[in-house]
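For reproducibility, we list the full input for the NAP complex.
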Amino acid sequence: MMNLSPATPGLTANSPLFRTKSFINGAWVDALSAETFTVTNPATGEVIASVADLGQADVRAAIEAAHVAWPAYRDLTAKERSALLRNWFTLILEHKEELATLMTMECGKVLTETRGEVAYGASFIEWFAEEAKRIYGDVIPANTNDKRLVVIKQSIGVVAAITPWNFPLAMITRKAGPALAAGSPVIVKPPSETPLTALAMTYLAEKAGFPPGVFNTVTTSKNAEIGLELCENSKVRKLSFTGSTATGKLLMRQCAANLTKVSLELGGNAPFIVFDDADIDAAVTGAMASKFRNSGQTCVCVNRLYVHDAVYDEFVRKFSDAVTALRVGNGLDSTNQQGPLINEKGLSKVKHHLEDALAKGARIRVGGQALDGLFFQPTVLIDVTDEMIITREEVFGPVAPIARFTSEAEVIQLANNTPYGLAAYFYSKDVSRCWRVAEALEYGMVGINEGLVSTEVAPFGGIKESGMGREGSKYGMDYYLEIKYLCFGGIS
Ligand code: NAP
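The corresponding predicted structure, in tokenized form, follows.
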């Protein structure tokens, strides 16, 4: 079942990318229970698919298949694994429009952004296809003359990847790319909101030629049951998770049972600081790009803006003008720039944050109203203070709260006053300040005169309660490898 209006660009109802079964050991399967769950388009409320709803026994079969596939897959040469990844990369780009359309339909993100996500997501597969050939070890100068000391790096084993709805495609490739490059089979557990993109990507992985059992996707609405199995089954050696901090903590506790290795990409609370010496127009452009991506629903979205007293009025005026001009509507209309929120829970959170801020003295400068369905007006809030929930919790919506500051020391203290540490941004033309502030901010990533920092060539990840581990870059492979030390004795 798929509801496609004649206006649906890039996708036909009988596209082979439109899949509703899970993929285990090289076969498309229903749940053993035959249960399904529905997927809804957040822009229209229409049900667009019924997808296999797997349970614990199904997932156990996927783990077993991956475990069996592991030895032969890790024994492929690096060049052979690289070629498989390269095939997948090419296929993803060839199906860019279909993937982008599917993503827009299930997560609401506008087409310009989903097209960008296809390219961004594919870039991790290209990057790790290249990195697969560079998994080098070391030779260590020995402590005695009759020994030779060598370090090799080997595939960690079966990897479970649990991913969120806000990047239905790229959060899969950031995990599967390095795992597959390193020689590890993967079990992807996509979110129940956006399983269709994951299944389309799985179809392309099948076409790319990964052997049965090497790439598995388990769709489910029973996240707790499946999560427990993926954490506690001793055949899973690594869990890579992107999602909320609360779920990340739970999964880490569950993984403690077998000391399963974990990488966690969790929530953020990004500050965006505009100093009095900043290029204000550039700061407005950066704030718009970061705050309103995916209607404010990304982990690196600006969560709170701090603007120096001397440039506050100018920044607020220019930023408000830019926000007022944003076009809101169904993302399949490529003239729209802001889509809906993902679900009622997301919408309620935005409303709650706004009500709390208004009750504590904030004022609405732009927007502030819920629209039809899950849409919300892009909003600018001024006179914001640190007592408001909106500055302490992830907003995950199109509301930009702005506060004033007067000194560098004060704003660094405000910016760091959070348990999160994912991304931070600031604008200044003073090079000394740029170094000082960048070093003082307790975050894994800092944008300096830049609002968009994500790329496959740089390490993505957070500190504090924003997680552990890094994705992409030369560092990203390390989390899917074990280091083995070989000590050759008796050398004469
Ligand atoms: P979430 O509720 O934690 O869900 C993320 C994934 O975990 C989904 O697949 C979800 O499945 C699954 N899940 C939920 N509870 C589970 C459990 N008990 N056991 C196993 N799996 C479970 O997060 P979300 O609200 O969808 O995603 C938004 C969050 O992700 C935000 O906090 C955002 O900042 C964060 N995020 C972080 C990054 C990063 O790189 N740091 C990137 C993107 C998003 P269901 O969909 O079936 O519930």
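The pocket of NAP is lined by residues 162-167, 189, 191-193, 221, 223-224, 227, 242-244, 247, 250, 265-268, 299, 394, 422, 462, 467 (CB under 6 Å). The chain has two domains: 22-266+467-484, 270-455. Both points were considered when choosing residues for closer inspection.
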